[in-house]
Amino acid sequence: MPDLELSPEIRALREDVRAFAPRLRAAAAQLEWERDPRRRVPWDLVAEGSRRGWRTLGLPAEHGGGGATVLALCVLIEELAAGDMGYAVIVDQTLKVQRILARLAGEQARAHFLGRFLGDERCVLAICFTEPDHGSDYLIPHPDFRFTTTAHRREDGAWVLNGTKRFISNGADAGFLVVFACTDPSQPASTGTSAFLVEPDLPGFSVEVVHEKIAQRTINNARLRFENVVLEPWRLLGEAHRGYTGARDVLRESTVEAAATTLGTARAAYEMALDHTAHRVQGGRPLAEHGNVRVRLGRMHAELEAARSLVWRAAVAVEHDPDYDFRLGAAAKLVAADVAVRVCESAVELHGGLGIMIEEAGVEKCLRDCLSFLHSDGAQDSMALRIADLTATGG
After folding, report:
1. 176-182 and 193-198 beta bridge pairing
2. CA 170 – CA 96 distance, rounded (Å)
């Protein structure tokens, strides 16, 4: 197992993104309260991130991407989230889907995807799991679980897709979507689900609702409807009925990157608290000179460092440990998301009344954003149950 020391290349990436992050913060402050959700996405900065290579960093080099390690992707996402979590999630979702397509797509689907994706700086991607009747079921599946979205195969080999997905990140804006549907209802999800490459201009696809939410307001989450969407045979990703299992194998690091996202935003809140307490005078001296405030800041720092160590350990293990323990990724997300909320709550409290003022200190946005990861990429209790189930079954 390699150690957790960052390579010179990853350090350079971190510094580059860290210098970019203040622009994300300024853009989010300007855009997040736009009435039209589609005007909230900072598309000019998405395009600039593409030119810097971040949007395609997860693709193998032979497909035109950056071929980055999981640790490098975690560093990228943490630094982007320190600027704006919404932007970070736009990029992270795109990184996840491109890796699924690189691994599972057949030659025709991959060529079709890469032809547009590499040439369009604003082409982002979405993955469609969550349904109105199913949330964390796909994380801790039971024998009776099936997706209610279905696809049946016609005699000519094409598939017909029907159903609804909701809360889908990038759902209203994605150039390509990976959609999971039940294709063999006689089998549980692990052996009866297929994955498909879908595009928004296919007849029968519609965006029903762009969800309003308190967090991640610069990324659009949507409810999507598929009504008799005809999919050519080449749009099937991987083996029929095995798409769910195949995608989970590709995305072993998904929870690890989610953990890194929360750390970036929480670290931003911590840095805001450091600055505020150094300059705000109360009781005749700066807040940072009061013992109780110093203790609070010390705990915030310690928790962030501990969570990051777990995230980096999981990021290295998922790529280099042949006996990778899936509990490690779940633990990273569970711990980091809890730590992020605690750090943000402390930062808000240390700001006093300013902490709850919109568009003044900025720290309340960090708390709103981190709250979203108490369920995003898997609810916290689902993560804990997954760890317990894996422990009970020997990993």
Report:
1. antiparallel
2. 12
Q: Tens digit of pLDDT for each residue in 292-306?
A: 999 999 999 999 999
75-93 CB burial, b ≥16 within 10 A, e <16: bbbbbbbbbbbbbbbbbbb
As a whole number of angstroms, the distance between CA 182 and CA 196 comes to 11
Residue with tokens 């796909």: 138
> 349 with 275: CB under 8 angstroms?
no
Annotation: CATH topology of 8-117: Butyryl-Coa Dehydrogenase, subunit A; domain 1 (1.10.540)
Return phi, psi of residue 3, to 5°. Answer: -80, 180
**Closest by CA position to 145, among listed 132, 156, 153, 134:** 134
Pick the CATH number of 125-245 from 3.30.230.10, 3.40.50.300, 3.40.930.10, 2.40.110.10: 2.40.110.10
Burial of residue 19, with CB atoms counted within 10 A of its CB: 0-12 exposed, 13-18 middle, 19 or more buried? exposed
Q: What's residue 172's pLDDT?
A: 97
Considering the entire predicted model, what is its pTM? 0.95
